[in-house]
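thought: user wants a sequence for this fold. calling inverse folding tool.
action: design(structure=
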C-alpha cells in the first residue's frame, strides 16, 4: 500500500455516516489554549480555560507546549521515509494478533475498514497487556516494539519523541486535575507510573478518489485518558460538536497539538467532561500524516468516578471497570469484524 490503497467495498461507509463534502466555515471552533504562564496570564486562568474547553468541546489545541518543533519535524520525516517504502519492506515489521505493535494496513473502526496505514510503538517497551483473544482478558501477554531497519534513525527519533510527549501528557493531566477541583495536580499521576500502556501511532492517509464514500478513520471515541495529536497542514480531523452533533473540522495550526479527553477522564470526572466522537476525512489529491500519542494507564488500573467529584447530589454514574480488559475487548475488532459493536463505557453506566 505504499502508493495507494486498492479500493473495495470493505472501505465504504454506511450512508448515514458518509462525509458531506461541501465546505462550511463553522461559526465556532475547537479552542486554542496557550500553555505558557506570564505576568498577564496566571495558572488559574489557564486552568479555567482548560475546564471550559473540556466541558464544551472535549477537544482543544495547545500552543507553547514545550515540545521542540525540530523533534516533531524529525518524526514527520522518518514517518514519511518509512511509509514511502514498498509494501514488502513495511510488512517485515507487520503486527498481528500476537503482537499488536508495528505496521498495519487493515484496521477497522465500527466494522468498516479505515483508509490508512499505521505504525504503532509503545512508550515503555515490553508492556504487559491482557490477551485480546481471551473473552475476559484474564491472561496477560507481553507486547514488544518492532523497529524497521529503515530509516536508520527511526527508532532513536521515535523513542526521543515518546519521552517528550509523555512529559506533555503529565502536564496536561495535572491541569485537568486542577480544573476538576482535585487537591493536587499529581492526584492521577500514579496510575501511569507503573506499567503504563501508552503508545504512539504514525498514521498515513493516502489520497482517495472517493472521499464521499470512505473515511480515514471512522467515528469513534478514545478509550484512554488523553490523546495528544500532531496533524500536518492537510487537515482532515473532524469533531462532533456537543451542542448540535455537527461534524466540525479541526483547523491545522502551525506548531500546535490537538488534545482530546478520553473515556477514562469522562468516568473519572463522573461525566463533567465527555469523551467526544471524532473521525478523519480523506483528501483526493494529498496524502496526510498525523501522529497521535495515546496516554493509557497500567493494565491493572480500575477505573471509576473519583471520590473527590462524587457526593449525595452527584452520585457515581459508572461502576468500576478494569482498563486492560476494556482495552483488549475494544482492540479485538482491529483484525476482524465483530457481530456487535465493541464495548463502550456506557455499558458500565449505573441506572439512575
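)
observation: tool returned 352 residues.
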Amino acid at each position: 500500500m505504499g502508493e495507494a490503497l486498492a479500493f473495495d467495498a470493505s472501505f465504504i461507509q454506511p450512508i448515514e455516516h458518509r462525509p458531506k463534502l461541501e465546505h462550511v466555515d463553522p461559526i465556532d471552533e475547537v479552542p486554542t489554549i496557550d500553555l505558557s504562564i506570564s505576568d498577564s496570564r496566571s495558572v488559574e486562568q489557564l486552568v479555567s480555560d482548560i475546564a471550559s474547553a473540556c466541558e464544551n468541546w472535549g477537544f482543544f489545541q495547545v500552543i507553547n507546549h514545550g515540545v521542540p518543533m525540530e523533534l516533531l519535524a524529525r518524526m514527520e520525516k522518518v514517518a514519511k521515509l518509512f511509509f514511502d517504502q514498498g509494501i514488502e519492506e513495511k510488512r517485515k515489521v507487520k503486527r498481528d494478533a500476537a503482537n499488536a505493535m508495528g505496521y498495519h494496513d487493515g484496521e477497522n473502526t465500527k466494522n468498516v475498514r479505515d483508509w490508512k496505514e499505521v505504525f504503532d510503538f509503545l512508550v515503555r517497551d515490553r508492556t504487559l497487556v491482557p490477551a485480546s483473544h481471551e473473552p475476559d482478558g484474564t491472561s496477560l501477554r507481553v507486547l514488544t516494539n518492532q523497529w524497521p531497519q529503515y530509516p536508520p534513525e527511526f527508532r532513536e527519533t521515535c523513542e526521543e519523541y515518546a519521552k517528550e510527549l509523555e512529559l506533555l501528557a503529565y502536564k496536561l493531566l495535572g491541569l485537568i486535575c486542577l480544573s476538576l477541583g482535585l487537591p493536587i495536580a499529581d492526584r492521577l499521576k500514579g496510575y501511569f507510573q507503573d506499567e503504563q500502556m501508552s503508545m504512539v501511532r504514525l498514521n498515513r492517509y493516502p489520497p482517495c478518489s472517493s472521499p464521499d464514500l470512505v473515511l480515514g478513520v471512522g467515528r469513534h471515541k478514545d478509550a484512554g485518558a488523553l490523546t495528544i495529536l500532531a496533524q500536518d497542514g492537510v487537515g482532515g480531523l473532524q469533531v462532533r460538536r456537543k451542542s448540535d452533533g455537527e461534524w466540525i473540522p479541526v483547523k491545522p495550526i502551525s506548531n500546535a497539538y490537538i488534545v482530546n479527553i478520553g473515556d477514562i477522564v469522562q468516568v473519572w470526572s463522573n461525566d463533567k467532561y465527555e469523551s467526544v466522537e471524532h473521525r478523519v476525512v480523506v483528501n483526493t489529491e494529498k496524502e496526510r500524516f498525523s501522529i497521535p500519542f495515546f496516554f493509557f494507564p497500567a493494565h491493572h488500573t480500575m477505573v471509576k468516578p473519583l471520590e473527590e467529584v462524587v457526593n449525595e447530589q452527584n452520585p457515581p454514574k459508572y461502576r468500576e471497570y478494569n482498563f486492560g480488559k476494556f482495552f483488549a475487548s475494544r482492540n479485538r475488532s482491529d483484525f476482524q469484524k465483530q457481530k456487535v459493536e465493541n464495548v463502550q463505557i456506557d455499558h458500565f453506566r449505573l441506572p439512575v
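thought: summarizing for user.
answer: Here is the designed sequence. The longest helix spans residues 154-179.
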